[in-house]
């Protein structure tokens, strides 16, 4: 019998704030869990316990308690034991379980060091996925939905529908996988199949094999009851050869089970009316002088000249070519010669970091770059900038453009993925109907980016028009309210598929 309302949902992921974060996935997991909890569902998050990383953020974390539960997993003939710790997600009823295993997770970073992925990443996350299943069993979580995310947990649907099929506690469990970025697939040599615990028969083009290798993301897509990704446009894009990263055929085959759901933002955390990181607060109806105060404070902190009238462009991003930094570097002279200011926060590709440092050193009064991650500074850039840059080569969803809308910082984005779904270009028509929220360009080239910056700056000089665009953006509903209902609909579709399979005698 299918549950009529309250669902038991287990969210398995490799990171979540405030414990561990490398990108937007961490924000999404926590925000979705809170939204599901607020909607009346029973939610448990399961994460690896990267104990070294957690220790560096200890002051921000609630108390963590050992549950006494131990998971013994046979990893290629060796029994590896993980312990399970428990902690609450603040301001919710969500339970968070942390899988501790020092050999796998007591490391300086989550996935890589010095630009290289850990050599045993396949083993680490196969262990974690298998531990997720054992935790559900030993702790009698009896999930209606096992919701996994990206390749690090994509083995979960395969385990559910093979080894754990029909086991007590899993009789009515369905699986959902969310693709946050097709570029990262968890592809490893074929001998690593033994680490998954799956039978050799599943190493086939229909399940786990891709181009002669083990592909964990493909495994999840092939075997989950439902597949989601993080925006409607990206759901269309990944079914094409250009964006499907080799799995477009499988995704096209599963298109009836594929749903694009735009991420929301946590409006309790990202709120210019209450944000503890800001020197002044402001609202959509009354953004000044609060936003101007934030701009001055940002200019002071970043070391650029304090000038109220100069357009200040901001960027908070992983520094990679995916995020359009090659374009940023190509138009940096254009930005400076237009008498603009640019502030950037992020870390990533060392070559990009060095080039940005060079530009900042050449134009210290107009360009400032902070290498690293600073949550407080990220909030201050969102609030203090006039314009936010997101010229991505591809962008499954993106969150910063939505943070920018919320903070009255007008985004410049490329018409791709979630950026296309969340920012409305400023044109005569959209100004007339008061729907314009930003500036959008199509072709991935520095000329179009430069032209779009010029268009935005020209509009910035028209104070009344700019104020209207700010108001439009700040009035946009970027919350999880609509998205969470779409996820619940997908969950119920997954349960229907699971029920049909069980009725037909298939697992």
Question: What does it look like?
Answer:
This protein is of the alpha/beta class. It has 2 domains: 280 residues, 3-Layer(aba) Sandwich (Rossmann fold), CATH 3.40.50.2000; 185 residues, 3-Layer(aba) Sandwich (Rossmann fold). 37% of the residues lie in helices and 19% in strands. It has 19 helices and 20 strands. The chain has a 9-stranded mixed beta sheet, with helices on both faces. Strands 17-16-15-18-19-20 form a 6-stranded parallel beta sheet, sandwiched between helices. A hairpin with a 2-residue loop joins strand 6 and strand 7. The protein is globular. The two termini are 17 Å apart. The mean pLDDT is 94.
Short account of what is shown:
The protein is α/β, with parallel strands linked by helices and 507 residues long. It contains 19 helices and 20 strands. Helices cover 37% and strands 19% of the residues.
Q: What class would the helix/strand composition place it in?
A: alpha/beta
Number of DSSP-assigned strands: 20
pLDDT < 50 runs, ≥5 residues = none
CATH class of the largest domain: Alpha Beta
Instruction: State the domain count.
Output: 2
- DSSP strand (E) fraction? 15-25%
Number of helices: 19
CATH topology of the largest domain: Rossmann fold
Profile the largest sheet: 9 strands, mixed
Strand line-up across the major sheet: 3-4-5-2-1-8-9-13-14
What is the assigned CATH homologous superfamily of the largest domain?
Glycogen Phosphorylase B
- Average pLDDT: 94
Shape: globular
What is the share of helical residues?
25-40%
């Amino acid at each position: 019998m299918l549950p009529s309302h309250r669902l038991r949902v287990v969210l398995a992921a490799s990171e979540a704030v405030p414990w561990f974060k490398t990108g937007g996935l961490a924000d999404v997991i926590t925000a979705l869990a809170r939204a599901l909890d607020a909607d009346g569902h029973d939610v448990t998050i399961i994460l690896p316990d990267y104990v070294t990383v957690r220790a560096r953020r200890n002051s921000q974390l609630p108390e963590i308690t050992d549950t006494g539960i131990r998971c013994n997993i046979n990893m290629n003939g060796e029994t590896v034991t993980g312990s399970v710790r428990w902690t609450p997600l603040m301001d919710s009823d969500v339970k968070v379980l942390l899988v501790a295993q020092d050999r796998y997770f007591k490391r300086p970073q989550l996935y890589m060091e010095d630009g290289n992925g850990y050599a045993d990443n396949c083993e680490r996350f196969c262990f974690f996925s298998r531990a997720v299943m054992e935790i559900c069993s030993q702790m009698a979580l009896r999930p209606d939905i096992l919701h996994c995310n990206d390749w690090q947990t994509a083995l979960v649907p395969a385990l559910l529908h093979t080894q754990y099929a029909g086991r007590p506690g899993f009789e009515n469990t369905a699986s959902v996988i969310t693709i946050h970025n097709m570029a990262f697939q968890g592809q490893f040599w074929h001998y690593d199949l033994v680490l998954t615990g799956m039978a050799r028969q599943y190493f086939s083009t229909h399940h786990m094999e891709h181009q002669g290798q083990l592909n964990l993301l493909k495994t999840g897509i092939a075997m989950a009851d439902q597949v989601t990704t993080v925006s409607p446009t990206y759901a269309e894009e990944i079914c094409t050869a250009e964006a499907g990263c080799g799995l477009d055929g499988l995704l096209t085959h599963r298109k009836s089970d594929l749903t694009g759901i735009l991420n929301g933002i946590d409006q309790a955390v990202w709120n210019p009316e209450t944000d503890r990181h800001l020197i002044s607060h402001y609202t959509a109806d009354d953004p000044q002088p609060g936003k101007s105060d934030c701009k001055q404070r940002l200019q002071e902190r970043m070391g650029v000249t304090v000038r109220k009238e100069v357009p200040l462009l901001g960027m908070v991003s992983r520094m990679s070519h995916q995020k359009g930094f090659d374009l940023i570097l190509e138009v940096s002279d254009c930005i400076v010669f237009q008498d603009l200011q640019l502030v950037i926060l992020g870390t990533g590709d060392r070559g990009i970091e060095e080039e940005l440092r060079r530009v900042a050193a050449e134009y210290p009064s107009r360009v400032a770059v902070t290498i690293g991650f600073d949550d407080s500074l990220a909030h201050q850039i969102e609030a203090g900038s006039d314009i936010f840059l997101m010229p991505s080569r591809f962008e499954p969803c993106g969150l910063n453009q939505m943070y920018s809308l919320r903070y009255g910082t007008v985004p410049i984005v490329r018409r791709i993925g979630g950026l296309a779904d969340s920012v409305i270009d400023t044109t005569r028509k959209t100004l007339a109907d008061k729907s314009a929220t930003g500036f959008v360009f199509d072709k991935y080239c520095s000329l179009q980016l430069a032209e779009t910056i010029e268009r935005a700056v020209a509009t910035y000089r028209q104070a009344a028009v700019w104020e209207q665009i700010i108001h439009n953006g700040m009035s946009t509903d970027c919350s999880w309210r609509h998205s969470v209902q779409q996820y619940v609909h997908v969950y119920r579709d997954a349960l229907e598929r699971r029920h049909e399979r069980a009725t037909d005698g298939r697992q």
